[in-house]
Amino acid sequence: xxxxxxxxxxxxxxxxxxxxxxxxxxxxxxxxxxxxxxxxxxxxxxxxxxxxxxxxxxxxxxxxxxxxxxxxxxxxxxxxxxxxxxxxxxxxxxxxxxxxxxxxxxxxxxxxxxxxxxxxxxxxxxxxxxxxxxxxxxxxxxxxxxxxxxxxxxxxxxxxxxxxxxxxxxxxxxxxxxxxxxxxxxxxxxxxxxxxxxxxxxxxxxxxxxxxxxxxxxxxxxxxxxxxxxxxxxxxxxxxxxxxxxxxxxxxxxxxxxxxxxxxxxxxxxxxxxxxxxxxxxxxxxxxxxxxxxxxxxxxxxxxxxxxxxxxxxxxxxxxxxxxxxxxxxxxxxxxxxxxxxxxxxxxxxxxxxxxxxxxxxxxxxxxxxxxxxxxxxxxxxxxxxxxxxxxxxxxxxxxxxxxxxxxxxxxxxxxxxxxxxxxxxxxxxxxxxxxxxxxxxxxxxxxxxxxxxxxxxxxxxxxxxxxxxxxxxxxxxxxxxxxxxxxxxxxxxxxxxxxxxxxxxxxxxxxxxxxxxxxxxxxxxxxx
Amino acid sequence: xxxxxxxxxxxxxxxxxxxxxxxxxxxxxxxxxxxxxxxxxxxxxxxxxxxxxxxxxxxxxxxxxxxxxxxxxxxxxxxxxxxxxxxxxxxxxxxxxxxxxxxxxxxxxxxxxxxxxxxxxxxxxxxxxxxxxxxxxxxxxxxxxxxxxxxxxxxxxxxxxxxxxxxxxxxxxxxxxxxxxxxxxxxxxxxxxxxxxxxxxxxxxxxxxxxxxxxxxxxxxxxxxxxxxxxxxxxxxxxxxxxxxxxxxxxxxxxxxxxxxxxxxxxxxxxxxxxxxxxxxxxxxxxxxxx
Lengths: 529, 291
Hints:
Strand content of chain B: under 5%
Largest interface: A-B, 103 and 108 residues
Number of helices of chain A: 19
Mean pLDDT of chain B: 86
Largest sheet of chain B: none
CATH superfamily of the largest domain in chain A: MetI-like
CATH class of the largest domain in chain A: Mainly Alpha
Structural class of chain A: alpha+beta
CATH topology of the largest domain in chain B: MetI-like fold
CATH architecture of the largest domain in chain A: Orthogonal Bundle
Low-confidence stretches of chain A: 1-14
CATH class of the largest domain in chain B: Mainly Alpha
Number of strands of chain B: 0
Oligomer: heterodimer
Low-confidence stretches of chain B: 287-291
Helix content of chain B: over 70%
Mean pLDDT of chain A: 85
Distance between the termini of chain B: 53 Å
Shape of chain B: flat
Number of helices of chain B: 13
Number of domains of chain B: 2
Helix content of chain A: 55-70%
Structural class of chain B: mainly alpha
Strand order of the largest sheet of chain A: 5-4-3-2-6
Radius of gyration of chain A: 36 Å
Radius of gyration of chain B: 25 Å
């Protein structure tokens, strides 16, 4: 295609006027202020937040450069789209790749600082050390207050998790031992009643921060101490009680004897996820099954819809046929119904004990297929529905393509005495495939990731037995990832799911390359640029 | 001569008979499920087990029960779906149009490379990277709740991630067919670039905008994956997530209710579709041939 060679100069009268510049600066200031705030708080989150902050930094700098540098005027028009592309396509591609090499998932959902922070909150009661004398007060509701007297220092009134100012609960005067005689609403426990509540009391952590106490025995309470202290220089977590040192091993602080501290955090663990995928027999088994079914499903979907669609297109290509247009419109209705509705509707028709189709099959053959419990029948059911859903699209594009085949080809074939089948085989099909070939490849790529049909039909089931992850016989890769990442009931595994996403990337890239190789798409595109 | 035409007539008759039989079979295959579910929606017994093709005592009771049911906020779902789909569709058309216009009218360094990147990037649709998308939207929500999980804004943002795709190519192709003289005379008359785009060029490409908008609307309306991951509360659900979640529980006893919901849920799309069938077909083939 020849292009007009005049180059439009980026004239921008308004954007160069004073008010235009001021407006631009004002808008940029607002955007920058917001972006800076978001970047600051996101970095504070660590982990995903850090990555997101980096993406935002790239986008913000880009927008500023584009809008301040007059030569980049054309990019101003593209900036919203480019920003969205960076944020929602390029960044997820990068993040998916990164995640595939980590152990992000249940047990490893925190960043390392978050995990350390959480572990450092754990407390313990040291042996020996400081001892407090204590007296408990109990309310009628069963709440406790603890009056503790440190060996050197002021007595304190504590409730679980907080320090209480004695005046705020109207504590009475102190007796000779330095203990309030009474606190309104509470009963002061003597030694005998203290025995009764001793186990309740010893389970409570009184006080907060530096000032804490746990009841150890009838005579003594002790302040709590932080159990784990992180030594940043040596990157170990030290147990203050036993002296054990825990070093990070694959996202878990682990002692030499193998004791692990939870929660763990996510770290880069290298190619472990891919090793599981390709080497571990337990994981590889279901994965390979699912991979093969994904390809079979996508290929058969294209093939079946294409055959039916082409057949219909040929039959209704006869211009002399009465009511042709109306019949064609009616045949296309199933294409207009959102797939999630169609599949659910078919579930009702196929229901083995109640559905109309199954009941009629049972009448004829004695029993209905187990559309949802049997792996083979479930797959057949999916392909049946998929054919019903997809043939109108193929019918549409084949109808279009048939009209581009010159009629004199058939006339010449008639003269030569070619049969209808020969005409179809040697004229229609080859010419048609040239026209719709790229669309068939596109349809394959679409069905390769057809989440809706698979998930609505049976949520991937029936399950594959003995799979270490939840996997079903009708699962395709994308529904398998969905179950790994969100819906397994066995925790989430973002990392393994991301590793499989990478596999899909590779397959899709191969499909596109094949498309370029066998069609002229790339040349066409390069010319059209 | 008469023999020949008799043979011809007989052949035509055979062909008609074949066409009638074939059409009956084809229409049964294509329409039976729809007719069956329409019948179920009017069957007051509301059960898969007892349904017959022509319901006895046909009534609108399923529709009434569905719309009045406090546990199934059907209208809410429908409104959510229409809202998310229209906003996504309008913003997509707008963003696609300004991008395509820039690619069509300006010559700048990196233009060719960008166009090719946009073409190739479609290999990785956003919906495929839903794990990453979930984590991003979650991270947004930590500080900007209205853009986080369980928000329609976050869902729409995710959909908009796909605007730089084949549609930019499709629209650019249309902009290329609009003569540049129009731009230039408008610019000479003192219009700004934006005014030229908005008032002169954009109205000329309305058909392709309609195609892009409608296809985006239909695709968004039917999406079952992203809303399922990003939305948590029943009241926030789109129709796809709401209706399927509801239908998965005790399906066979609520068959009539589901049928009524399915019919009402499918109607907006079927209506849109019937009106713009030809537009969509041309859009499909054009977009696809280039992709």
